Amino acid sequence: MDRDIELRVDREAHAVRVDTRTTLLDLLRDRLGNMSPKKGCDHGQCGACTVLVDGRRTLSCLLLAAQASDCEVTTAAGLAPGGEPHPVQQAFLDHDGYQCGYCTPGQICSGVGVLDEAARDEPSHVTEDLTARVALDREELKERMSGNLCRCGAHPGIIDALEEAARQ
Amino acid sequence: MTELSQPADRRASIGTAEPRHDGPAKVTGSAPYAFEHPAADPAYGHLVTSAVARGRITALHTDAARALPGVLAVLSHLAAPALADTSDAEFAVLQSDEVAFRGQIVALVVAEDAETAREAARLVGVEYEESTARTVLDPESDALYCPESVNGGHRSDTRDAAVEGLLSAADHLLDATYRTPMQHQAAMEPHTTTALWQENRGHPSLTLYDSTQNPHGVRRTLATVLGLPADAIRCVAHYVGGGFGSKGLPHANVVAAALAARAVPGRTVRLPLTRQQTFTLGGHRTPTVQRVRLGADEGGRIRAISHEAWEHTSRIKEFAEQTAAISRMMYTAEHRTTAHRLLPLDVPVPTWMRAPGEAPGSYALEVAVDELAELVGVDPIELRVRNEPPHDPETGKPWSSRRLVDCLREGAEWFGWDPHHAPRLRREGRWRVGHGVAAATYPGLYIPGTKAEIERLGDGRYAVRTGAVDLGTGAWTVLAQIAADALDCPLDRIALELGDTRLPRASVAGGSTGTACWGSAIVGAARAFRAEHGSDPRTGARTLAGPEEHPEREQYAIHSFGAHFVEVRIDADTGEVRVPRMRSVFSAGRIINPVTARSQFVGAMIMGVSAALHEENAVGHGGALATHDLAGYHVASHADVGDLRARWLEETDPAYTPIGARGIGEIGIVGAAAAVANATYDATGLRIRQLPLTPDHFLP
């Protein structure tokens, strides 16, 4: 069964007919040729496919494309318009927060989402004082980023990068 | 040959903290991995895998799949081209009705889109005549055998008749058995191939964009299996999303991709493994059972070592992890025995996983040394110092460099090590706290055969070409640094080309050999280029060469060393083990790039801690894996990773290669799990002799 949807991806409008079984991740990669989000597990277990949907970090392998109708989708590619890296991307470069690079676009989209969640004082499992402003220390960042797996062991560099981005 | 000289008139590139050259492409996601190479109107493949561990396919129903709109081909052993060479059973894809493990490829669908391919694969019905499968490693089994050799070309056994007598007469005898579980590489990018088969006047050609650590190796294997000349196959791997050994050798999925592409000539086919399929088809590390016996005199000097390993292999293809080989060189002892016994089982094919042999072997040996230190009554660092071999006990060759004691001493100071030889059972609030130490080592392997080409380009830069591949190790950056110094030019004059069989042949990105072997070829090519074309070459001047002769290498035993120091905290109520702090010091020759090197060391340490605390799989009696996804097979996540840091000794090893760098990709995992285990003993007094160190071992 197919369905017509409209959505914006990295500020570009698309009108596409999609198989209702198609995930947002497969729409981006197989249909729109946007290979920035990666497929690591297709089951929401690794985080490599993380994109921002209307500004919120989202596992694009767990969202049907049809559900993303009328949404604004931002991938790691869209965070760097004209090749100018986003501050979070620059921090990853500065702290070697990646090795193979396969989890990296997802880590970066997730990190951008985390900064935004903290700015809105959304608490996490490790937030001690639920009435205070959220401060993104390393424990907060590690907790909030744990849905994004990395097998190269770039974790310290990733958290260093996000600590720096959070300070800015 | 002399060591690569440092240019006097400008700053050398080697040794500088150069950021990764592939960084901008990776942080935006634009670096193309195997699935992602552009193709006009690609088709998609999906595998059907066996649901039994051993048996025969008695019926295969493909009508429903074929009837699905959008399905282009359904292949099975009843409808697949015969392969030219099926001597390696792992690659004999769809060639017979026999099933040798659960998860084996039994059919393959090609369709217009991924959704249709997956649905069609689901519609393929397979009936089996099931046989009794054996899937569990039993060290008492009468089917165990001694392999002719173990991985790396080592002898399976080394025997010394004096060992048993010395062990029984020893002042201190440690005799313990250790177990490690089946583990998986779990690289973030699932094994994937994008394949294009073309026919040109009866001459087929095959292009593969593959997630591989060895493009030339894939080409070689596929040429044999498919019966094609090697130059009819091109394999490209510009970016690979991690490998950790699982992509070092080709696996059945690449053959399947070639068959899929052959079914739709002229049409590109993308065939990614699902994450679940990577657990069976992508490889694993064998479980091991290891008995270690150390016989020491009153002063703790080891007189005899016995290290025996039992492990599994698949019934269709042997892989013999060289688990006990580490005990041939690590500590002094006049007499030693090492042995490997394999049990062939109806399990998926095991293969390389980061530091094959050394990783599980060091776990057993380095916990055993900790246990011996307690028996002798000395600090485990001091025990290691007393057992430093003056030369390689196995070969009698002098060490090119053996600075284990320097690593131990520097690490002890950095970590704040308090000498002790019995568990201190410290408690801070809800946490039991312990410290542990273990040594690390990895051999300086050398794989010959890499060649590199240098060409002067019109814009004044130098193209540097070799078929090597960067899995995330930093090769895109460090090989450019080596080339810049070898050509005595600024780094921005180097235009590096990697990851393509159209480039000169390169050895596998494995065994921590890449920088040394590829780098030596680049140095050799650069020197030949300068000898041929001088310092001001014309545009288009070009030289192809390999490494220069380096006979010193054969005169020495070449190994890297390291020391890990770990603090653990164990929740007194739940038994949860945390590793809040780890300090490791390495002696690995010259460090080409401190940025990428640190990430390699720390990344491997994290994988070692992950193995210590989390990672475990098992094959059930029906052949099914206990877990085959990243929810069940837990690898360290951000919240699991404490403050882990690495340092290295400033040194160079010109005996190994003119670059002076030994490999760094694997040593960080070696001994890491032992250091964690030894720390849990200090905290609790419980000597757990198996991995992983899950909470149930430490419940009150």
From TrEMBL, chain A:
* One annotated GO molecular function: 2 iron, 2 sulfur cluster binding
User: Which pathway is this protein engaged in?
Assistant: Alkaloid degradation; nicotine degradation
Domain (2Fe-2S ferredoxin-type) ranges: 3-79
**A Pfam family the protein falls into:** Fer2_2
Q: Does the keyword Metal-binding apply?
A: yes
PROSITE patterns attached here?
Answer: 2FE2S_FER_1, 2FE2S_FER_2
Q: Which InterPro entries match?
A: 2Fe-2S-bd (IPR002888), 2Fe-2S-bd_dom_sf (IPR036884), 2Fe-2S_ferredoxin-like_sf (IPR036010), 2Fe-2S_ferredoxin-type (IPR001041), 2Fe2S_fd_BS (IPR006058), Aldehyde_Oxdr_Iron-Sulfur (IPR052914), Beta-grasp_dom_sf (IPR012675)
Instruction: Please provide the record's keywords in A-Z order.
Output: 2Fe-2S, Iron, Iron-sulfur, Metal-binding, Oxidoreductase
What is the designated name of this protein? 2Fe-2S iron-sulfur cluster binding domain-containing protein
Query: What organism does the record attribute this protein to?
Result: Streptomyces tardus
